[in-house]
# Entry
Amino acid sequence: MNGRLRAQAGVSAIETMIYIVGSLLVVGMLASIMRNVNRGFMQGVQTVRMQKDAREAVNLMSREIRNAGLKQTFYETSPGNFLDTILTAAYLGAGDSSSFSFSDGGRYDGLSFRQTVLDPNGKPLGVDTVQYSVDSTRSMLRRKLNNGRFEDFCPNVDGLQFQYGVYAVNNAAINERPIAPGNWGTTGSAVSSFDGSALIVSLSSAGSGGVIQNAVAIDLASPKTYYCEIVSAGSEEFFANINSLDLVIFDNKGKILVTNPFLPGHSPLRRRLEFSVPDAKGCRLGFRMNAGGSAQLRITSVRFGELNLGAFSWKNAPSLLEKKCVRAVRILLMAKTTNPLSGQTGRDYTLANAVIPVSDRYMRRYYEEIVPVPNNGNF
# Structure
């Protein structure tokens, strides 16, 4: 009887406690595994969301910045009739033919630029002004179109910088600012005079004529690219009988080697050309106007030199002269996750000329894009 009772006896208290402790350990291990899995999942979701938002923001800015400065348009006004014009609203104004302004300071830069809106036939419909800035209190990247309100389009921006790629301009072969009238002779039917601030080139009737710089002989080399900038004191060109104004380079025998037309612009008149030339030594620089009647051009300054297209000089805050030579914009964006994760702390990030200190455990990612802006500047 006692043997049967012993065989039917239950689990002892000690064994029960051992089972309970073991079960708790298993449950705790499972809970820890689940927490780690959930943390990894949330980290992955936040990282994917951060990357998606930042990538879309950079792509949007790239598409819009690429069209900055489109100011010259050529379109058909009626069957067989075409108009070649420059929209003054597409650049900043007299003395600044660039199409952007910027704010450079701290971890968040700002950028504003202008772009022409065209219909499918190339006819200008107007000019849009686009502005980017970051609300530092919310770490929110915002965009504003024209005079509208700022709209949020990328959260969790920890840093935003813009750098500007300037074509390297070598020392100018001719740098007359102000003009040196004694260096210039006349060509064709033109006569010249000096009023104390401007070289006055005049035609008394319809025809062509201009001036040539006799003081400096220029050696040209292919395939290098050169630039020329001319500033006039008024709006006479393309207005008072002047049909066109050309840059002319004469070879060492006085024959025309290169002819390039300047485009109509604004007052005070400022023209800029970028062009390639054949190999030639001992050349002279000149300008020629074609007029339908008596005409006058007042030149106040001239610059001519070699342009290095092979590399950009990256500027955080380009000068007024450098802004006209900007042909690329570099976007640098630092994004972070919404909630603290297993990011690295105790280090500083350098973004262009801004230092971003990190003292938290937010995960961060860095994005960079170089955007060409071939229509910026030009004169």
